[in-house]
Amino acid sequence: MVPNPFESNMYSGKALINVMSYDRELLFGVGAAQKSLMKHYSYDVEHPLTFQQQMETECQKERYSLTLVNGPSDKQSAKAYIANVDVNNDNTISQYLTFSGNDKNNLMTIKLAGVVAVCYCAMVSPQDECESSSFWIFGGLMTIQGPEGGRSFIFPTNVVVKFDLKGWGFSPNDKIRIIPATSACSDNNNDPNSYTGFKVRCPAVDGNGCRQAALTESIDTNVLTASDAGVYIERVDIGQTSSVLTFSDPISTHLTNDPEFGQDIITIDLDRIMVNGKSMTNALLTPTERHEANRLAGLYEFQDTFTKAAIETYQVGHRVMAQADSRQMLIPTGWTSTEAFPFTISPFSFVDTQGHWIRRNKLDSNEEIKGTETASNLKLCWGIWTNGAPKFYHEAGTVNFEDPPPMAEATVSLSTKMQEAVAPIIIAFKTTAGRSEYASPTGQTMLMLRFMDVSTKLEPFFYSTEQGIRGVYAMPDYQEVTKDQQKQHVCGKIFTEFWSSHSEGFPMPVGCYYSQKLSDLPTTGGSIFFREIYITFGERNGLRENTEYHIVLNAEIQFFNMGDQLVDIYAMCAGFTGCSRPYQVFEKGTATASRATEIGATAAEPQFSLTDGFLIQRGDPLDGVLNLSNLNILQD
């Protein structure tokens, strides 16, 4: 009779446990050559047929970890977490072995996210010690969900940003929360109050969003899925120690092995897997077939009394490795034909030939967060959504919101001061001497121009065609060119001239783009609408330090006084990478009006300039009055 892999073993007496780090702690080698257990044996490439024996050899080293486990972290403390089926009768049999001490009231905590290996010894001496190291058995692997921790986020104020995290076991419903520096993620039963000096749901149109954070603010997160990428698993070619997944389209742009995050880890949706042509809901599916589907999914069901219904699962996942074919990825899991699970060709397929997958080692938020005030050493908590509420369990890192350093100079000069006129303006600024950040980026950089009030002060115009007539027109309120759509010709539609004091001139943009007309949710009064225009520069071809720049474009001149803030200028990184940190702003210029505007004369109300539009010549030097009775046009 084939044993049911879901039926729990029967236990009696005592047992000890040891939890080892599989892919997190560096247990082998010295210095820069240190490796995790997984990397030491290349288990990220394949699981050899001797995997169980090799892992038991590691278990038999009885290597406990103080940094990994709060509980059985050495031989002595492991005794307090001994499993004892019945303290009064060693012959009592049970399906469950609870490692919580004789009184079954001690709880252990794994302090580091990652995959762990569970070892146990069922031959225990009267002194509650394993009778021989050779009795240690490898029980299996399990993913401890959570972020790696230790990240440091330094974001500029008033720039919309996002978070990204490295970790294990991430899920689509995970949450993050920014909390004050003096708080802890465990406060208030793992539901601490949020820091509120930032906005969420930014940017916003018509003031419907970009609101101040609430005390209970939980930030939504994303993990990459097959549906997001539009790429699915079509076939599984199995080997004894590893297997190859073939995808519907090139996958190497979505699943990678990058220097920061390492090999991507995926799980495969169990309900899409078919074994020998049978789906997970097929009444003819055997327990063994279902168990092998679990192995392919990287999601394992806890042993218990077998039922056809769904059983609670835990993750292990698969580390994927790119192949020469861009549609293929290798996973370190193989299958051997056995009496219990015989096959001659791959027994696995997928519903509608579409295997769905989820990447589990990367988590990010939407680009929607905008710091509104400076703050240091805030904490970023990671948590899960459970029973209709968030619970935060781990500190992912620290968050700092900083005002960018100021530019040396920034002004907006006008070619006319008449209100409601559409005319060229000059945005002039000078970068600060000695600002090394301009030379250090390895990626693209950009200049962001934020027109602070396009409703009542200054609104940028562009060249366009309306009703067959080409001219200078207002940008439609809801029209935008996104970053992915940026082109050089967009620069030509908006800007009429670039100038630089540098000997090499103004750097050639690789593209320009612009936002819709935006407005944060007003806290008091009405909304202030603003618009952002971006100029992107290629790698190593951006702005320079200690240099003057002039940018000319058309705009509608409205009402403002000399010195009013009109445009914020951000010289910054263009992407999430390529600078010393994401969203790095080298400098910010606050461009103010070089002069005030005035109401223009009309046919019904002609007028001279209010300040210097009319001057009487040859008047009395004392009172300025000219006596016309004493003069005629022929007099000197």
Descriptive report:
There is one protein chain. With 636 residues, the protein is mainly beta. The protein has four domains: 14-144, no CATH class; 166-220 and 364-402, no CATH class; 226-362, no CATH class; 409-593, no CATH class. 7% of the residues lie in helices and 34% in strands. It contains seven helices and 42 strands. The strands form ten sheets. Strands 32, 33, 34, 35, 36, 37, 38, 39, 40, 41 and 42 form an eleven-stranded mixed β-sheet that branches. The chain has an eight-stranded mixed β-sheet with strand order 7-10-28-14-11-30-31-8, with no helix packed on it. The chain has a four-stranded antiparallel β-sheet with strand order 3-1-5-6, with helices on one face. The longest helix has 11 residues, at 287-297. It is elongated. The termini are far apart.
Q: How far apart, in Å, are the first and last alpha carbons?
A: 130 Å
Count of helix runs: 7
Structural domain tally: 4
Give the integer mean of the pLDDT values: 93
- In total, how many beta strands? 42
* Backbone CA Rg: 34 Å
Q: What is the helical fraction, as a range of percent?
A: under 10%
**Apparent shape:** elongated
The fraction of residues assigned to DSSP E strands is 25-35%
Main sheet specs: 11 strands, mixed
**Which stretches are low in confidence, meaning pLDDT under 50 for 5 or more residues running?**
none
Structural class: mainly beta
